[in-house]
TrEMBL record:
Family matches, as SUPFAM superfamilies: C-terminal domain of transcriptional repressors (SSF50037)
Originating organism: Slackia isoflavoniconvertens
Top-level taxon of the source organism: Bacteria
Entry annotated with the keyword Signal: no
InterPro entries: Fe-transptr_FeoA-like (IPR007167), FeoA (IPR052713), FeoA_core_dom (IPR038157), Transcriptional_repressor_C (IPR008988)
PANTHER family found in the cross-reference section: FE(2+) TRANSPORT PROTEIN A (PTHR42954)
Keyword Iron: yes
Name of the protein described by the UniProt record: Ferrous iron transport protein A
GO molecular function per UniProt: transition metal ion binding
Keywords: Iron
One Pfam family per UniProt: FeoA
Residues annotated as domain Ferrous iron transporter FeoA-like: 7-78
């Protein structure tokens, strides 16, 4: 898959599970995502998306988390 066609967590449909391939954010954004336990190879289940797309509620490693659109767009998935 070409980099410009990469699928992000933002593209995953409600009720689907995706595996994290790579984090594209830098600095504080990337550190914040990793602090939530979202790292390469982890499965993320999308539970709910707010009507305007922000926040996105996910389950990671058994924990329920809320992500902002900007965070979800920096998480590349398979």
């Amino acid at each position: 898959m070409a980099e410009d066609q990469a699928k992000t967590l933002r593209d995953v449909k409600i009720g689907d599970t995706a595996t994290v391939r790579r984090l594209t954010g830098e600095g504080a954004l990337k550190r914040h995502i990793m602090d939530m336990g979202i790292t390469k190879g982890v499965e993320v289940y999308v539970r709910k998306v707010a009507p305007l797309g922000d926040p996105i509620e996910v389950t990671v490693r058994g924990y329920e988390l809320s992500l902002r659109k900007s965070e979800a767009e920096s998480i590349l998935v398979n």
